[in-house]
Write a structure and sequence with these properties.
- It is a single chain.
- The protein is of the alpha+beta class.
- The protein has one domain.
- It contains four helices and six strands; from the N terminus they run ββααββααββ.
- The strands form two sheets. A four-stranded mixed beta sheet has the order 2-1-5-6, covered by helices on one side.
- Strand 1 and strand 2 form a beta hairpin.
- Helix 3 packs antiparallel against helix 4.
Length: 105
């Protein structure tokens, strides 16, 4: 599966095999469990992030992973997004610190 990641108007097609997404489910469930307790999203606290917000949070982590060239985390964050919102083909990550401005397309 491919997710097109847009950062500052540059597109990065990131491919994650379906098997990797399936094998990452335990990790993804841990992420969901952590977010069930609420999450700091930019300047706001969100008590129970919905699916879209959770994917925006993962996109913020994805941005950090790309900047740090952490391929494992890139794969996991893309896998999380694709597993939780399988219809998403493109994600336009906000780079101004406003996580909720990240677009899922």
């Amino acid at each position: 599966m491919i997710l097109n990641v847009i950062i500052d108007e540059k597109t990065y097609p990131i491919e994650v095999p379906e098997e990797t997404i399936k094998s990452g489910e335990k990790f993804f469930q841990k992420m969901d469990s952590d977010m069930d307790n609420g999450w700091q999203v930019s300047r706001d606290w969100v008590d129970n992030p919905d699916t879209k917000q959770r994917c925006q949070i993962a996109a913020d982590k994805l941005l950090t992973a790309i900047n740090k060239e952490n391929e494992t985390m890139v794969t996991l964050m893309v896998g999380y997004i694709l597993s939780r919102m399988p219809g998403v083909a493109t994600i336009n990550i906000d780079t101004n610190g406003e996580i909720l401005e990240t677009e899922l397309i």
